[in-house]
Amino acid sequence: MHVKKQVIFLEWYEPIHPQFERFCKARVFGDMDYRDLMNETLLIAFQKFETIQSKESFLSFLFSICVRIVGNYLQKRKTERWNDSESSVNIRELGTSPQEKADVYFLYLALAQLVEEQRESIILFEIVGLSIKEIMEIQGISESAVKQRLKRGREKLTEILTFEAKLTKKEVNHAK
Fold first, then answer.
1. What is the full DSSP assignment across 109-152?
2. Which residues contact 147 (CB under 8 A, 6 or more apart)?
3. What is the pLDDT of residue 13?
4. 45-77: b or e for each residue (b if 16 or more CB lie within 10 Å)?
5. What stretches in the chain show pLDDT beneath 70?
């Protein structure tokens, strides 16, 4: 029975692995190693695999576990987040140009400055590609609340990234 459970679990997990990995990378940027988060989440998911109602709800199930693990971790840590000396990005995507890696790095830094709820909504919608209804289920909020988080998160990201771009241009002009 245990072997059959493992086979089914892997069968369900393999197609959604890329989405899950993207979510974990973006969600814990600067806080902890995303691979640790993935492993811990998958371990808990495997232990509670019998509670899943359908294959379609498996990804939401993983996200829910993941969000709880991150929340617990941050509660325990309670130190200042995003300390530049501690934060590091480990982008190892094959075929990614240096410019794309830099863009992803700055996007992750900007995401890190958002309020938890907005960051999570943006990651789930924009990076993972979930629908608003799926995000509603994961976060346990209304459709309008999800839309509001996305709107405010995008506005804040625009503000952050625009400000960073202006600073970079000023630094370049002063260097000349």
1. HHHHTS-HHHHHHHIIIIIS---HHHHHHHHT--HHHHHHHHHH
2. 132
3. 94
4. beeeeeebeeeeebbbbbbbbbbebbeeeeeee
5. 1, 78-96, 164-176
- The C-alpha torsion from 132 through 137 and 140 to 145, rounded to 10°, is 10
Q: E strands within the chain?
A: none
| Amino acid, res. 160 | I
Domains, the chain, ordered by start: 1-82 (no CATH), 96-176 (1.10.10.10)
Which pLDDT does position 45 carry in this prediction? 93
Rounded CA gap, 41 and 24, in Å? 10
- 3-state SS, residue 23: helix
Q: What is the pLDDT of residue 164?
A: 58
Among 32, 35, 33, 39, residue whose Cα is nearest residue 65? 39
CB 46 within 8 A of CB 32: no
- For residue 146, give the nearest of 113, 114, 124 by alpha carbon: 124
Q: What are phi and psi of 91, to 5 degrees?
A: -100, 110
pLDDT at 161: 85
